[in-house]
Write a structure and sequence with these properties.
about 350 residues; alpha/beta; 7-stranded parallel β-sheet; 3-stranded antiparallel β-sheet; 18 strands; about 30% helix
Length: about 350
């Protein structure tokens, strides 16, 4: 199978490329090494792949990049909460316009193969909550005055009582609560529209939970929390944990995420729809900070505070991915965090390719 991987030089994309190549597939990568995430040519790129150094938003790249392609793995994306709302245009451009340009190019060549989209658990907003009186309820956005007072858990919108967080399945309501989340949901809708209008196409939207592992970016506003905590320990600092550290997440290793992509791309019949890509074992943010702490390092510091775009709890059921894709996360939390203490983060081995200068 000839697979196009957009964003294939990035954190998750490069691991997808590795697994596809190891499985005997041919891979073509399109990546523009976004300067917000890359200082130059990153280490760890597999030389067996073909690299096209170009922006997915450039329509001129696609006539050649799509030649003989059987399947598309769309990883290219601007991720994380970013700096502040000033990032909005760049998020929409890179994520939604980039996806639209790709889909238009696929339409132009009458593509009807597999499309696997890198989506995110952020499309859910707050996770699933149960009130002991009113059952499953949908909490509103957390109020600034409550957060300022150190009240971080959303209350029941009916009676104000404490809620209990539960696992989220793919049919849960979607309620994106920051710019990044809104763009990821738009990507899902755009790909679903393409699937409906091009019979024979199968789109699998993989909703990644909190991904960590080797080649994670570091020291940027777009790095994941695991990378930020590890960098703090490497500086000899105690990582700062927002709120009370009790935020529940599902931390899933990047090799497991790559495997989920390959399963979706190579599935014998193809399976459409959304899939949670998660471990199925939620942990708190403070648990993760403690698991990354090297011997003798200072303990993480719970500093309170908050970011308005953050949600309190979201963790998911992996059952649909188990049943339909045959995907089960193989790397345990303890083993993955132990490895990640020493795993190489993103490193630069040379200048940006000439095509991108």
């Amino acid at each position: 199978m000839n697979v196009l991987v957009t964003g294939g030089a990035g954190f998750i994309g490069s691991h997808v490329v590795d697994e596809l190549l190891d499985a005997g597939h041919s891979v073509r990568v399109v990546d523009d090494l976004d300067p917000a995430a890359h200082d130059g040519l990153p280490a760890g790129l597999d030389p067996r792949a073909q690299y096209v150094w170009a922006d997915v938003r450039d329509p001129d790249v696609w006539p050649d990049a799509l030649v003989d392609i059987d399947a598309v793995c769309h990883q290219a994306s601007k991720v994380g909460l970013g700096v502040d709302f000033a990032d909005v245009a760049d998020y929409v451009s890179r994520n939604d316009l980039g996806t639209a340009r790709l889909l238009r190019a696929l339409h132009d060549v009458s593509f009807t193969g597999r499309i696997v989209l890198a989506s995110s658990m952020v499309v859910y907003g707050e996770g699933r909550y149960r009130c002991t009186v009113h059952g499953i309820v949908r909490p509103g956005p957390r109020r600034r005055e409550d957060l300022d007072a150190g009240s971080f858990d959303p209350p029941c919108p009916v009676c104000g009582a404490m809620l209990v967080a539960e696992t989220v399945s793919e049919d849960h309501w979607l309620d994106p609560r920051n710019v990044y989340a809104a763009t990821k949901l738009a990507q899902e809708h755009l790909c679903a529209a393409y699937e409906r209008e091009h019979p024979g196409t199968v789109v699998s939207s993989l909703r990644y939970h909190n991904v960590y592992g080797p080649r994670m970016p570091k020291d940027t506003p777009y790095a994941g929390v695991a990378s930020l905590f590890r960098s703090a320990y490497e500086r000899g600092d105690a990582p700062k944990v927002y709120e009370d550290g009790g935020q529940m997440r599902d931390f899933v290793h990047v090799r497991d995420v790559a495997h989920a992509n390959v399963l979706a791309l190579a599935h014998p019949e193809g399976v459409s729809g959304a899939f949670n890509v998660c471990s199925g074992t939620p942990r708190s943010v403070l648990d993760m900070a403690e698991a990354l702490r090297p011997d003798g390092a200072p303990r993480p510091t719970v500093v309170g505070g908050y970011r308005l775009g953050d949600i309190r709890h979201v963790f998911a059921s992996p059952q649909r991915a188990i049943d339909l894709l045959g995907f089960r996360a193989a790397v345990s939390f303890d083993d993955g965090m132990h490895e990640f203490r020493h795993a190489p983060l993103r490193a630069t081995i040379g200048p940006r390719p000439a095509e991108l200068r």
